[in-house]
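We now fix the convention by which a protein and its fold are recorded. These numbers are not coordinates but entries in a learned vocabulary of local backbone shapes. A record is reproduced here so that you can trace the correspondence yourselves:
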Amino acid sequence: MKNQNKDEINIYSNDFLKLMNSIHVRFLEVNSINYNELLRKSLEEIGEFFDLDRIYIYHFSKDPTFMKIECQWNKKFIKPKREIIEDEVVYAFPWLIRQIKSKDFIVLNNITEFPVDATFELEAFNMEGIKSSLILPLKDKNKLIGFIGFETLSESIIWQSEQIKVLNNISKFLEFIKARITKLKEYESLLNGQTILLDNAASQIWALSNVTSYATVNEAHAEFFGKKKSDLEYKDLYDIFDVNTANKLSENNWELFRNDEPAEKELKIKNWKGEDRLLQVKSKPIKDESGNIKYLVCTAQDITEQRIAEAELYKAKVEAESANIAKSQFLANMSHEIRTPMNGIFGFLELLESSNLSLEQKEFVREAKSASDILLNIINDILDFSKIEAKKLVLEKISFNLRTVIEDAVSLFVPKTLEKGIQLYTIIDPTIPDEVIGDPSRLKQILTNLLSNGVKFTDAGEIAIKVDYFEEENDIALLTFEVRDTGIGISGKDIQKLFKSFNQADASTTRKYGGTGLGLSICRELVNMMDGEITVDSVLDKGSIFRFCVRLKISKRASEHISIFEKVNDVNILIVDNDENSRKITSSYLKGTGLHIIEVDGAGEAISTIISNNDTKNKISIVIIECEIPGMNCYELARTLKNIPIAKHIKLILLMSRYKGDFKAAMEYGFSSYLTKPLKRDDLLDCIAVNLGLKKEDEEHFEDSNKNVVKNIYDLSEIRILLAEDNEVNRKIFISMLKSRGITCDVALDGKEALRKVSEEDYDIVFMDCQMPVMDGYEATAEIRRIEENRKHTKIVAVTANAMEGDSEKCIKSGMDNYITKPINFGIVFKMIEESIIDKKHNTIDYSRIIDNYINEFSRDTGLDIEDALEIFEDYIRCLPDLLNGINDAINTKDLKKLAKFAHELKGSSGTLRINSVHELAKMLDKKALEEKLDECNEIFGQIKDLFYKI
């Protein structure tokens, strides 16, 4: 039918309907397997019908720059379009592809119809021998997916419009079939994937069409009951299982259907072996358009072993907690039992040391005290480690002076470093905050542990402590500490186990140097709790550098301690020290003062510097001399300078080791002051300020050589002390230590007796043992607080051998004011006694001085004569104690209404009598009470009391 007339076209149209019907019928049962075969047969039928030589279908690949023949047909003895089916480059035929994309069909009756720009296409047609061609685009939802080509090679034909129309309809049908097959393949792939996943899933999966009927299941669910999928799918529960199993499953299903929403529950049921298994079932309803449940999809995990493991774990947890409680109780008891005899050992050694002993006996006592200190440190390490292990170690959050904590920690090791001939340096960044918030005792513990190791493992050289500071956001101080020594060092393989519990670098160090091996482990935990980290660098036989950082909240920034030097100009200070590190430290502490610093390393250079600068702006005002300079010693240098007329005015400060210097001898050589090493910055600044006349000498701080001595400016007979202690040894030590300082005390043998004595006598301070017969210290304190409700508050200090976490809180909660542990540090005891004497002194107001200071001004302002004014003042003084006590009680009980009432009364009476300083503070107190700011009220009341003590 290459060239039909009109009659032939009609016949052709009828035959075409038969052709289309044949193709439609053929594709009724098309699937992904038979599609290609049916398509090839259809192309053959179309080619024979239209008497064509060959037909082909191209489809574009996922990469649209490539295409590939999907199916082709050709007459016998006609070459196929492509002998080898493979990807072809789309733009090998640029003109043709443009036409396909832009037109509904491309007709070529003969090759002469190719335009000039169809060079590649013309070449291909000539090579293949194509005479004429019709090409129709194939689309899926208006997206071009390929094209179908109809060709003649034996002769040229003229494509009629009716032919084109018919073949276009055929291509549309083939487009539809292709889209259907594509979707079918995608769906089959999805189903196959889902089937693989479902049947290989470890979890059980099934779908229910109603309470008692399965829709589908996976292999895992079928295998659980020892069945196949086909045994369960589309079956009723009661046709599959025994009655008990079916009832249990249907009850479970009914509950899940009733929920009508995603649900989760546990189901106990027997498997095919008859074993009770626990399934965790999760369900999700699948609903139709009306909102009715079409399917209920369920998944299940067998959690039997998990529950058994959890039960075992819980049992182990309970046993561990019980063991932990028992361990904590054991530790608390051991702490008490060990510390009680340790208190006796320390106390009697201290008493023995203060008696008349021979040199040999004093040496014995010193060694016994040293051994006792070591034992106590071991006990403390073990207790700390136990607290950390039990997660019961809690850090304090209090404001403390950072520099003081660092310097105090270093000071502890001065005697040992002097004994071993080791240099000890402290370099502290001058900009560090004055006060931070944290746990000072634990920070000091870290430092002392690292310093102790440095001293222990260093026999020559030096130990240096460097502290730097960086401020982070939100007023957080990042403090970095470096402890460097020139000791035995640590090998690389041993560094790895250095911070592990009960470890030292190697076993031989334990034998030689002793120790528990817990110190660094405890340090690491403490540093971690302070939001920091600790590291170490070390070289064997060269030394070690321990570095750690902590983060602490800034409470008070670097003070204006150096502002006092703003009053002076052109002050030059000469530092004479042959140790460069020591010179640099001294110099750094004077940084920012405005003082001009000159450093020299010997006596000769010092003398020449003083003489050469005498008539210049660098004239020396103060010389700081290290006591052990070589050549001419410090005393000879001082005497020489005092004999030089131009140097007589210079103030000399001796920098000496605490245990080596003799300041009385130094004064004879012309020294005006002395400072001990390791040098403390504030001591240095105070000393220089005194020598420059910027501070009075009595303001200068010198450390008391005997910390246990109460200052003699107070009458010790004024203090009333009660000791409540049942242990005879502890009583004897306590009484003897007080007696050695000229203090006496009353004694109670148990809490009940302590309660009676306090109710009968007026004591200033009670030292209360916590564990006593009849009535313990906690109960006795609570009773004392109850009966003294309208009496003076008695200061009660807990004395206990318990040192576990929570013990101090228990003491404070029972009403005690303070807390000390055994073995007792009597330095702390005497400090508490001193504070009580000071409090007692301050609590006695000299009311007559109020009259003397203010009555004349009041009389002058009011016009009253002195006698009338005196009467008013006497009434004020008579009411004042009750008024102040009322304010104190109101603050203690947090009764802000009562506080405002008393503050208002004090404000009015003080203002009337022209006691303006008290009046202003009372006005502030009244305001803060109304604002309910209790802390500020307490602070203001302290200022009011101070004013009355000073009036």
